[in-house]
Amino acid sequence: MKILIPVKRVIDANVKVRVKSDGSGVDLANVKMSMNPFDEIAVEEAVRIKERGEATEVVAVSIGSAKSQDTLRTALAMGADRAILVKTDQAVIEPLAVAKLLKRVIENEKPDLVIMGKQAIDDDSNQTGQMLAGLLGWPQGTFASKVELNGAKVKVVREVDGGLETVQLAKPAVVTTDLRLNEPRYASLPNIMKAKKKPINETTPEALGVDIAPRLKLIAVAEPKAREAGIKVDSVAMLVDKLKNEAGVL
């Protein structure tokens, strides 16, 4: 069985995001970049499946500039067997375009299972996995907190508003990962060195026949309003008065 994992290069989760002074976007100058945390969980799950002998190959895919090779090397160091880079210098690639590109790659690779992060922390769209499943006509298990393989079936325990829901999917299928699925491993130094020798094949959106021109226009980006300091009140009556007359919630 072959597993395909899309991974994305984003601003490191521990870095404070800065908005450009003109409000045109996020400042990426001299900012540490790393793999999207939800994608790390997807890579870890795929590698664990392979280690259990339930998969024979794990393929990582990324879409972006040549710098995305660093993200792919991280996936390879974690245990992926090979990688594919869909190379483009376009700064913003919308979820629908990503789904279309992944569909083309999947048609070429013919994986039995696609495991991907439920969302990327830069735009938080939470759309690509669902769009990809729709374009492929494959069943999907989103927000997975547990994945079990059973022959031609995949059982996914997924997190929903009311608790947990268990679905059974027929392969091939798309699964998107939630935070509680696993704890990603750190790549060891020997594996990092080995990853440098693993192959990364390159292609382009043009070669895949996909138009990635933006359909949306970004109007402005702004930081959230600073939270005002809290106050202490001397009595319940004063609290009720402030909630009623100042906050307007009563």
In short:
With 250 residues, this protein is α/β, with parallel strands linked by helices. It has seven helices and eleven strands.
Description:
A nine-stranded mixed β-sheet has the order 9-8-7-10-6-1-4-5-11, with helices on both faces. Strand 8 and strand 9 form a beta hairpin. Helix content is 29%, strand content 26%. The protein has helices at residues 37-51, 68-78, 95-109, 128-136, 189-195, 205-208, 236-247; strands at residues 2-6, 9-11, 33-35, 57-64, 82-87, 113-117, 140-150, 153-160, 163-170, 173-177, 200-203. Helix 2 (68-78) crosses helix 5 (189-195) and helix 3 packs across helix 4. It has 250 residues and is an alpha/beta fold. It has a single domain, classed as 3-Layer(aba) Sandwich (Rossmann fold), CATH 3.40.50.620.
Determine the CATH superfamily: HUPs
What global shape is seen?
globular
Number of helices: 7
Mean pLDDT: 91
Briefly, what CATH class?
Alpha Beta
Approximate helicity band = 25-40%
